[in-house]
Design brief:
heterodimer; A: Nucleotidyltransferase, domain 5; Actin, Chain A, domain 4; Substrate Binding Domain Of DNAk, Chain A, domain 1; 6-stranded mixed β-sheet; 5-stranded mixed β-sheet; B: mainly alpha; 2 domains; 2 strands; elongated
Chain lengths: ~650, ~230
């Protein structure tokens, strides 16, 4: 298992992807429906009447449920990861989700989905599990290790929540990689590039800017900045708000009380936004519940004026990143564009102005699909970690921590111990003592952020140093080592120096799940992962065999059958009997071999059917492939493609 | 962290048991990664402790060691090696961050040699009147008055263009003074690196005083920048 494949995962606000290194190039692994993007949408199916286990669907099928049963569907859950109750409440004003009503302050918020409640990491775990399954189906082997990307500006709690989600999905997260850094890796792979590059990453829900120096295969991040609450969602919400207000004013219908109608308008808003990247104007046409129609034309100029304040919010972080890197815009050699929102022409223009590109005869890089580039980079990093490839052995990422780490000192001010943009892993050692005779505990409050007062920064955790030997006040000398690891997550250890005793540390994360809680949320029992996988493979192979057998039976009545020679029919019958027998057995290898034999024996039949089939131009396909093409044009990258994943 | 250790303390390699001195990141015998070594930041890079440092060499060594030590290289190693890779790389990064910055490098090396250099304190009381350099006393007094006025004006939503210009001028002036300090510091580096004991000791006291003055100026500039920037 230790040398199994490591996949790269982009767990996005809007879409998620899984990729791997195929030879010396990263490739996205498509899902069952042939699509590279798995929408980050999770739906809870109606509970089984017999009280069986609830099923959860992910991706396109879940997205379809969004209009019909919005109360059973959640999307953009990334915005809720690692966030406290209050923050989530502000967030939820724009989204149609309900918090479970029994959540107490200090707990990880849970979202009500139909009859059940889920924490944000659990929802993310369902998405990760779907990606894991897509990869397993693609490789025909279990996948247990992954690199997952996170926005560079994610704080400690958001990173920890992402790692927790991986664990719940049965994935060992070998590394969290910052999304812009991953994108740089995807761009820098094939060329031995040198120079300074900026990565402008405007995704569905987050904005990051990172400045990197490339030299000898080392990608050294100089500075990073961003906003974890800024992205395409904000643009959708602007359009949505206008539409809802106008519908209310013109037609007297307040759709805000109809969740499914809001979803229909949101869908129209997103479509309009996408059209406006290529068309001079877009048209809204929505049927209202009372039978009226809401129609509206949005010219691109109006759209650009509307989104200008959203886009302008990316300027500040870019300027700060340049200052922190100690360079001017002219010193940026290349700009890489990442995230679906960078397709908007106004965004490209803003980046052009910001880095003075056109004046220097340069253009931002858009060669790689902005939706896929992060996943591709994650696959490169996965290959680096797997450590067995010539392509990536010379590459190394040196990333930074986006936020300063500090300790609350006397008077509520923050004493910074690790400044932002320090290369990680980074550490700091601090000494603490007691203020009262005989004191055996010292409490330390760790915060993340740039503000001067602890109350303005984000509380990360409270550490309680315990078991200090009772001494005169001021005499104990407790050495606390703070270490930010390569994932950007804080680790703490402490020692009382006079007694030499390792002090006990009790950590109370301000936002986050405890280890025990994560353990209870693991989706599939970890111990049974291998066994489950084998079982699932067998079931899928049986489904596949069943489908081929039924297609063969159907083919008997087709004109093509009449053109077969006697020995060909005999061969098909023999293969059919063999497959039917193998289907009832438990041996996956035998079943696969019998399926392949069935396929081979029907090769000419498939060709004959193709020739007579109406409009398909496919040649030399086997029965299974021909059948698929004839039915619903599903692209199946693996001959054992199972019917549907749940 | 700030100890000059005798780097000849022998320890046995955890993997091959052959003894080596504890200033090494890798066992000279079996090449396995070792727990964080003693010794100072300069010895991490195998560089001589000097203030005039070859920054190109420093970066080269940093990249070379990063390639060997980084946790990415130990993603599938056993747990103890993973832990040491993490700790060693943290040490490497901390050392690089300190040494590549001229001011941090100077403070670090002088502290190693027993100099007392005031710690940076965040928060209130940053401008401690008792520590105002004598030649700046009058200007700092005026500046503080202006800063107070500016903040008061801001509170009631007024802008005072004259005050703004005057503060911007002050900022430029103090920026210039900082540059002067930096040049004076650099001028002492060679004396410290190459002089005899007496010259080194003189250079050290001069630099400690310069660093104090610099920290003071830095806090002033930060206050002015913050007040100006709070538009």
């Amino acid at each position: 298992m230790a040398d199994g494949r490591v996949v790269g995962i982009d767990l996005g606000t809007t879409n998620s992807l899984v990729a791997y290194m195929q030879g010396d190039a990263p490739v996205v692994i498509p899902g069952v429906d042939g699509s590279n993007l798995v929408p980050s949408v999770v739906a809870l199916d109606p509970l089984p009447a017999d009280g069986g286990r609830p099923t959860v669907t992910v991706g396109n099928s879940a997205r379809r449920a969004l209009i019909e049963t919005p109360e059973r569907v959640i999307y953009s859950v990334k915005r809720l990861m690692g966030r406290g109750l209050e923050e989530v409440q502000t967030e939820l004003r724009l989204f149609p989700f309900r918090l479970a009503d029994d959540v107490e302050a200090g707990e990880v918020p849970r979202i009500q989905l139909g009859e059940l409640r889920f924490t944000p990491p659990e929802i993310s775990a369902y998405i990760l599990r779907q990606l894991k399954r897509n990869a397993e189906r693609f490789f025909g082997a279990p996948v247990t290790q992954a690199v997952i990307t996170v926005p560079a500006y994610f704080n400690d709690a958001q990173r920890q929540a992402t790692k927790d989600a991986g664990r719940m999905a049965g994935l060992e997260v070998l590394r969290l990689v910052n999304e812009p850094t991953a994108a740089a890796l995807a761009y820098g792979l094939d060329r031995a590039k040198e120079g300074t590059i900026a990565v402008y990453d405007l995704g569905g829900g987050t904005f990051d800017i990172s400045i990197l120096k490339l030299r000898d295969g080392i990608f050294e991040v100089q500075s990073t900045n961003g906003d974890t609450h800024l992205g395409g969602d904000d643009i959708d919400n602007l359009l949505l708000t206008i539409a809802l207000d106008e519908i209310h004013a013109e037609h007297g219908v307040d759709l805000r009380t109809h969740p499914s109608a809001v979803q229909a308008v949101r869908k129209a808003a997103i479509e309009a936004k996408i059209r406006l990247s290529t068309e001079p104007s877009a048209h809204f046409d929505i049927e209202l519940p009372n039978g009226d129609r809401y129609q509206r034309e949005i010219p691109r100029e109006v759209f650009e004026q509307l989104i200008e304040p959203v886009l302008a919010r990316t300027i500040g972080p870019c300027k700060q990143a340049l200052i922190d890197a100690g360079i001017t815009p002219e010193q940026i050699d290349e700009v890489v564009m990442v995230g679906g929102s960078t397709r908007i022409p106004a965004v490209r223009k803003l980046v052009d102005d910001l880095f003075h590109l056109a004046g220097r005869g340069k253009k931002p890089h858009i060669e790689l699909n902005p939706d896929e580039v992060v996943a591709l980079g994650a696959a490169v990093q996965a290959d680096i970690l797997a450590g067995a490839s010539k392509t990536t052995e010379e590459l190394l990422l040196l990333d930074v921590t986006p936020l300063s780490l500090g300790i609350e000192a006397l008077g509520g001010v923050v004493a910074k111990i690790i400044t932002r943009n320090s290369t990680i892993p980074a550490s700091a050692t601090e000494h603490f003592t007691t203020g009262v005779d005989g004191q055996t505990n010292v409490a330390i409050h760790v915060v993340q952020g740039e503000r001067e007062l602890a109350s303005d920064c984000r509380s990360l955790a409270r550490f309680d140093l315990k078991g200090i030997p009772p001494m005169t006040a001021g005499l104990p000398r407790i050495e606390v080592k703070f270490l930010i690891d390569a994932d950007g997550i804080l680790q703490v250890s402490a020692r009382e120096q006079r007694s030499g005793k390792a002090a006990q540390i009790e950590v109370k994360p301000t936002y986050g799940l405890t280890d025990e809680q994560v353990e209870t949320m693991i989706l599939d029992s970890f111990d049974h992962a291998e066994e489950d996988f084998a079982k699932r493979q067998l079931i899928e192979a049986r489904n596949e065999a069943e489908s081929i057998l039924s297609k063969v039976e159907q083919a008997r009545t087709s004109p093509a059958w009449g053109q077969l020679r006697g020995e060909e029919i005999a061969a098909i019958d023999a293969a059919r009997d063999r497959l039917a027998a193998a289907k009832t057995g438990e041996d996956l290898a035998v079943l696969r071999e019998a399926t392949l034999a069935m396929d081979r024996s029907t090769q000419r039949l498939a060709e004959l059917m193709m020739d007579s089939a109406v409009s398909t131009a496919m040649q030399g396909k086997t029965m299974a492939a021909a059948g698929d093409d004839l039915e619903d044009n599903v692209t199946a990258p693996h001959p054992m493609a199972p019917a549907e994943f749940k | 962290m700030l100890k000059v250790l005798d780097s000849a303390v022998p320890v046995a390699c955890w993997s091959c048991s052959v003894a080596h001195n504890d200033a090494t990141l890798f066992c000279p015998h079996c090449s396995k990664i070792q727990p964080p070594p003693g010794g100072d930041y300069f010895s991490v890079f195998e560089l001589l402790p000097k203030l005039n440092l070859d920054l190109g060499m420093l970066e080269h060594q940093f990249h070379k060691l990063s390639r060997k030590l980084h946790p990415d290289r130990f993603a599938r190693a056993q747990d103890n090696e993973k832990q040491w890779s993490l700790a060693d790389t943290a040490l490497l990064n901390d050392a690089y961050r300190t040494l590549k910055d001229p001011i941090h490098r100077t403070e670090y090396l002088l502290k190693l040699h027993g100099a007392e250099i005031g710690e940076e304190h965040a928060g209130k009381g940053r401008i401690d009147p008792s520590r105002v350099p004598a030649d700046l006393l009058e200007e700092v007094f005026d500046l503080n008055m202006q800063l107070e006025e500016m903040r008061a004006a801001r509170k009631v939503g007024e802008t005072d263009a004259e005050l703004q210009t005057s503060l911007e001028q002050a900022k430029r002036k103090f920026d210039g003074l900082m540059d002067d300090v930096d040049q004076e510091l650099r001028a002492q580096w060679t004396a410290w690196d190459e002089g005899d004991a007496a010259a080194r000791s003189a250079a050290q006291s001069t630099m400690v005083a310069l660093l104090d003055r610099r920290r003071y100026l830095n806090n002033l500039v930060r206050d002015v920048t913050e007040t100006l920037g709070a538009n």
